[in-house]
Amino acid sequence: MRRINRKLRKMAADLLDLPQDVVMDLPRLTMIGDRQLYIENHRGVLHFSSDKLRLALSKGELEVTGSDLVIRTIWTEEVFVEGIIKNIEVRE
Fold first, then answer.
1. Residue 63's closest CA among 73, 71, 75, 55?
2. pTM (two decimals)
3. Is the pLDDT of residue 62 over 60?
4. Beta partners for 56?
5. Which of 36, 56, 77, 79 is the most buried (most CB within 10 A)?
6. CA distance 24 to 7
7. Residue 42: which residues within 8 A CB-CB, separation 6 or more?
8. Each residue's pLDDT tens digit, 64-92
9. Residue ranges of the alpha helices (H) in the chain?
10. Alpha-carbon Rg of the chain, whole angstroms?
11. Which residues partner with 39 through β-bridges?
């Protein structure tokens, strides 16, 4: 059933020319070099330290590792992080 629902959402996104992150509830990442990262559509902060950020997603987690990480801005579904970003990993 989930697979059918996902396919219908993807078809609707393609047909209506909508961004898939909106229709399928996916995270959107915008990265500027290795110094800034803007993350949309997260479900909350699970862990934060100067070398690691873990965010809950609708399906899984997002982990950002680096050094001197600082959360500059945080809203309900958006986070803006600065620092030296070394790795970004999405886990289901």
1. 55
2. 0.77
3. yes
4. 44, 61
5. 79
6. 10
7. 27, 55, 56, 57, 62, 77, 78, 79
8. 999 999 999 999 999 999 999 999 999 98
9. 2-16, 20-23
10. 15
11. 29, 79
